[in-house]
Amino acid sequence: MENKVYWANEVATILNVSRSTLRKWSLALEAEGYAFARDEHDRRCYVERDIPVFRKMKVMLDDGMTMENAATVAKALYDKEKEDMSGSVSMVVHADNKRSDERYLELVTQFQDMRSLLERMETQMYEQQAELRQQLADQQQYIEESLNRRDELLMKAVREALEERQRVAEKKWWEFWK
Questions:
Q1: Which of 21, 75, 95, 174 reaches 20 to 30 Å from 65, CA-CA?
Q2: Where are the domains of the chain?
Q3: Which residues contact 48 (CB under 8 A, 6 or more apart)?
Q4: Reduced to 3 DSSP states, what percent helix, strand and coil does the chain have, rounded to the nearest 5?
Q5: How far apart are CA 174 and CA 149, in angstroms?
Q6: pLDDT of residue 74
Q7: Which fold has domain 5-89?
Q8: Local mean pLDDT, 10-residue blocks, the chain (178 residues)
């Protein structure tokens, strides 16, 4: 199965990513020392062993890990699987892989904690926004009621003034000295 060769279009389709994304992932893995097969024109070609590495990398990226860290962990996991399959594991490499796995799990836990914190903060933010909207609506209602009361009092005063003016106009001049 290792002999089946895939081209970038096929691998991108399998992973449901674009070719440019696959190229970026490949470059990140190569920067970590991962080696891809090449054709006679030095173009990357992919084999069966590469697809699980990309799938692991995709999961880590979807979980919010940086591309560099995802490539490092994917390469380390690939190396660990390769060593486990060959049966020749040196103690130093195994210890490094164990630390990498522990660090990865620690980072995943931190990421999940941060995600839950952000979700709580988002919930609080929405609650505060709802509270502020309610306060704004209450203030708007208070302002409208105050304006209506002021308008009623003003109209009452204007009516009283007009009534007084009319009453004064109806009086005869001699009635003012009584």
A1: 95
A2: 5-89, 128-170
A3: 1, 2, 4
A4: 80, 5, 15
A5: 40
A6: 87
A7: Multidrug-efflux Transporter Regulator; Chain: A; Domain 2 (1.10.1660)
A8: 80 93 94 89 90 92 90 86 59 51 85 91 94 96 96 96 88 69
